[in-house]
Amino acid sequence: MKNTTLVIMAAGIGSRFGGGIKQLTSFGPNGEIIMDYSIYDAIEAGFNKIVFVIRNDLEKDFKEIIGKRIEKQIEVAYAFQELDNLPEGFSLPEGRAKPWGTGQAILACKGLVQEPFAVINADDYYGKDAFALVHDYLVNMDTEPGETFDICMAGFILENTLSENGGVTRGICRLNDNNELVGVNETRNIVKTPEGAAVFQPDGTVVPVDAKRLVSMNMWGFSPVFIDELDRGFRKFLSEISGNELKAEYLLPTIVDQLVKEERGSVTVLKTKDKWFGVTYREDVPTVAAEFKKLVEDGIYPEHLWG
After folding, report:
1. pLDDT of 208-233, one tens digit each?
2. Can you give the pTM of this predicted structure?
3. Which CATH number is 5-152+215-246+277-297's, of 3.40.50.1820, 3.30.420.40, 3.90.550.10, 3.30.460.80?
């Protein structure tokens, strides 16, 4: 069986969460955090290595709260995403405080990831089916360098990803007849409604959205050669952001979308019916805790996750 790695992006700053480190918030009956359940599902699906992408200032707390526990279950490595970790010839713009984005997060894994890998957010729960689908795709992936990049993405049904506590941003997918991604419409302020879902516009109007559409929740599968593409692309990105140096972000969905438009990449969308949930707002905490409690009560997970 081919080796596969799960990369967990945990370096982001949860601004809407109220200033806390939401990636390290406890939700399970015995102090488990969301990452515990993602890693449990990943191991069950067949992944055999975890790479955590974190910040240097988070390292001590991170290892105490989850890292040391997971190291007993599976091979673990750490990558560090920092604002000043830039290619030679580039310097940190004065006043820049915002992270450079998910593209730079995965680029931080260069040298650590030599095998097909999946990417997830630390504060999102994806469900067992999604990990199994992505893992099975990765083990059959052609990892040799070529003219195009073979990519997969877990596609979630929009209505299974909405928050009870406010609007969310979702990448609504456009697919061709082969379930390949044609494009992603990044749509802000999608809210749950009695009819399904809708977008609240700045002018106060409400536009209904098909709640059965597939959306991207930043769960991707890549060949290791993709990291070299990120390296080249990051240099190009930095050279073209004049005037927006303080806010521009190097984001995976944008990078993948560009590869598709240039016909240098194809993205197979793997539809999952799993219910996604995560912490966007602090008010989401009791809802997420209740979701995990139910999953344990239903026997989906053991009460003591790691024995």
Report:
1. 999 999 999 999 999 999 999 999 99
2. 0.92
3. 3.90.550.10
